[in-house]
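Prompt: For my understanding, could you write out one protein's sequence and backbone structure tokens?
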Amino acid sequence: MNSHSSLSGSSSPFPGYPTLDLEAMAKGLLRKSWLIGAVVGACVVVTAIYVTFIAKKRYQSTAVIYIEQEQVLNEAIRGVRSDDYSKLDSLKSLEQSITSGSVILRVVEKHGLLKQPDFLKPKSGGRPYTEAEVVEAVAKRVKATLRRGTRLIDVEVTDTSPARAQQLAQAFVDEFEAHMMEQNLQSSRKATAMLQEQAEEQLARVNVAEEALQKFREDHADVPMDEGGIIEKKLADLDRLLSEAKNDRLKLEAQVQKLDAAGTEDPERILEIANPGDQESIEKLLFTRNTKRAEMVKIQSQYQPTHPVYVSFIAELEGLEKEVAETARRMGESVRKRLETAREHETTLAETVNEQKREVLSADRTRKEFRSLKQAVDAAYQTYYALQARINETNVTEGVKESLVRMQQEPLMPVKPSSPKKTLAVGLAGVLGMFLGVGLVVALHLLDRSLRTRRQIEQTLGLPVLSEIADAPEAGDTLRDSLVVFSEPHSLAAESFRSLRMSLSTLSPRSVLVTSAISGEGKSFCAANLALLQAQMGYRTLLVDADFRRPSLSGALMHWQSQMDPNTTALETKNVCQKTPFPNLYLISCAQFAPNSSEVMSGEHFATMLWEAYRSFDCVIIDTSPLALVSDALNFARYADAVVLVARAGRTQAGDAQKACRELRQLRVPLAGCILNGVVDSERSKAYFETYRPATAARPTLALGMSPRS
């Protein structure tokens, strides 16, 4: 069994439909381009007739207005408009306001458009139009467009009458301007009333705030409300005194530390700590003592200790030493007393400072409440003054007409209709027709379930395409005239059969069974030409006509036999091997298994016949009945070395081919592949085979002097 028989049956997501092939679809579009052209032409013609004779002509008139940015009466008084028309969103709002329902109703009422019979189509029953219906109908005829990057607005009005279109364009501008001025006047009056009411309420708030502020002042009359008053100055003085007391204490503590380090044995170090005021007297005392010491040195060198002068100097010197020591002691005690006093003074000042700080914080809290009340009073006055100023402005502007619109270009009476646009309509009709035509052709292609290309067969049936047999225009309508391998050996169809033989040769089958899903797909045509090609190659070939219902191979070969010898009889013997007019080609035309019975040859007899044929022939080609009509081919397919399914391009339906493949696979027959018959090849291949003619091109000759039954 060949390897291709195990392939899946179909990869198409829609059962019964072939796999989509874009290349085939493109070719289908080219083949049916006449249908696309017909659809395009029909759309263009219908559209041209409609826009020329049926469609109602409409005229368009355009007015251009300029939106003023701002109207200022003077530097202090401005209009009551709150919109800033220098911004895009405000301009877009004005653009929409021109076609608002209020403006439309004003225009319709002022110009009596509802009384004009040709303006709006009368309703059934003579019922009147409601305001909403009037606005909806007229809004379709007017359009306002803000020009990009400018303050210009185009007001376009479309109507069946050119004069009325011009009149309505001017009317929309006028009524829009009047409508905006009325809205501004109403807004001004409403603003004045609202501002007066708010001013009265604000005045009451001012009085309440002033009373609260006055009561607070009376309750805190002892607290100065100004920043940097007596309390803050007193606190600053106390801070300065506390800082000086702290410095004095630190100095005295340093002196005491020096006294403690000097001790009582060194009065001179103690005297060095003296105050600057006592320093002069201490220096004199020390100078006197040091002078006595120097004189004592001289006395000691001159006198004896018992000498009165010596004794007198010793007494004076001891007196000076005692005086120095006593002075040092008094100074030490004085420093310690002053330290105690400085500490007490610093403590007192610190308590006073803390008390003063608490008093300052209390005053600050009071001032903060005072400032809040005063700010509330100031804010209330400012709001009241602003309301009064706004009331004055609105009173001035109430009598002034504040216009936003300035006519930039007045509407003109149109001469040519703006719609329908014939060129555009015909062009769009052509494009639409193109889409419809292409869609129709694609839909027909998608609804077509026939197999057309190699790719469709391989993906839908899961079978390899052994060869694509080109459509042979040189072949006749009957099988006897379609032996292209013999009649046109250098044609594209004959070359296709050589390709088929090459594909089958890779499987090396002794017997090949050729069948199809339905009749008319060319299985007998393929079997006869394949057998004839094998015979031309020098192989003894047996062609078996196993189509019991409609045998045709004998009649095809009889035609050539009669051409060779008109007096010979036709090949009509059944179940007997007969030699054909073609060298190396033999034919068996099978008959029914039993006389006067509809039962065909059984599989066992067919297998026996096939094994007998293997002894005398190199290859056997078997033509059988269509699988979708009768089951004869299923009886014989199990015994052939290779089974080939023939499908005709554009004729074989995917469902029939899938059913045939499914039945063959269920019997596990050696399904070799598929033959795609009737393929219209590309222009390049045709051109090649039309120009290719060998110099010795000649048909193969028939076997002369051969008896049909020899």
User: Anything to note?
Assistant: DSSP finds 20 helices and twelve strands in the chain. The longest helix spans residues 308-397. The mean pLDDT is 78.
